[in-house]
Amino acid sequence: MQTYEEIIIPNESRKKIKGLVPRGLRFKTKPSAKMQRCLVVLDLEKALSDMTTIFAERTLSRLVTQTQATLLSRRSISPTVVADVMVGLRRLIHNDPYVTTSEQAVRRLLLAKAHNAADRLIASVELQGETLFVWSCEPKLYTCSIKDIPVLAKLSKVQLANFEVSKSGSRINWPKADVDLDLGSIRYWADPTFRHNKDKELREAAKSYGVAIRELRLEKGLKQSDILGLSSRHVRRLEAGEGQPFTSTLEKLAAAHEMSLESYLDTLATRSASK
Question: How would you write the chain as a 3-class SS string?
Fold first, then answer.
């Protein structure tokens, strides 16, 4: 029995991806009645700006995209046909395409675009050996070694392999290890520039927080040695902005100020935000 495989390229996408399909392969602008399996090729920018186009395609179960260039989706199509198109894609854009086997990735891309959160949400994740490949919904690839991420470095291979991406793309969850990471956490370990800026941001926040702790203590007429359960050295370091305090530390500070933890935290937040 003959299997009818087709490459579908809507008219609005043809100009942008002209030259993509290798010679000898025909393409159509709409699926024919004979079509059983197909490869859908769409302009990524156009597709993400018109969600109805994507959801109207019933063939979307696998996705292949390239950053800011094209979006291709396939459903059980011949690996040979896909390989031929990939050759054409690489020749056209001089880059390897993004590949995922999850229909949910399509929905994450669309929802992220709709909420202007493409740079904060995850499209898909792949683990190859000791390397984690995470695609944002822009889509942009972030690669990092498992051993560089402390919370993952201690997990077994079985635990590492058992992960899932939330429906919204807000996090990656390792349920057996009770570990959750968002895209910001991945970027921290994958992008040195992002890590540098984030560390600088945290240091500045810690200093502002420390100033607020000191001001509140002085207004209460307390000495650094008056905080029950904390040493003067510990309080001095907190006020100098040397790290963020644990909850147990904040509870001791709140008690010394005769305030509830919630009220103490609210006051610190208000004051540090004005620094």
Answer: CCCCEEEECCHHHHCCCCCCCCCCCCEECCCCCCCCEEEEEEEHHHHHHCHHHHHHCCCCCEEEEECCCEEEEECCCCHHHHHHHHHHHHHHHCCCCEEECCHHHHHHHHHHHHCCCCCCCEEEEEEECCEEEEEECCCCEEEEEHHHCHHHHCCCHHHHHCCEECCCCCCEEECCCCEEECHHHHHHHHCHHHHHHHHHHHHHHHHHHHHHHHHHHHHHCCCHHHCCCCCHHHHHHHHCCCCCCCHHHHHHHHHHCCCCHHHHHHHHHHHHHCC
Rounded to whole angstroms, the Cα distance separating 98 from 141 reads 8
Q: Which residues contact 134 (CB under 8 A, 6 or more apart)?
A: 122, 124, 125, 141, 142, 143, 144, 172, 183, 186, 190
Distance of CA 83 to the CA centre of its chain: 28
Are β-strands 164-165 and 172-174 bridged in parallel, bridged antiparallel, or unpaired? antiparallel
- The per-residue pLDDT for range 141-195, each reduced to its tens digit, is 899 999 999 999 999 999 999 999 999 999 999 998 889 999 999 999 999 999 9
- Angle (nearest 5°) at CA 144 between 141 and 145: 150
* CB atoms closer than 10 angstroms to residue 251: 15
Residues paired with 126 in a beta bridge:
133
Residues 6+ apart with CB under 8 A from 141: 67, 98, 133, 134, 135
What percentage of the chain carries pLDDT values higher than 70?
64
Cβ atoms of residues 84 and 22 within 8 Å = yes
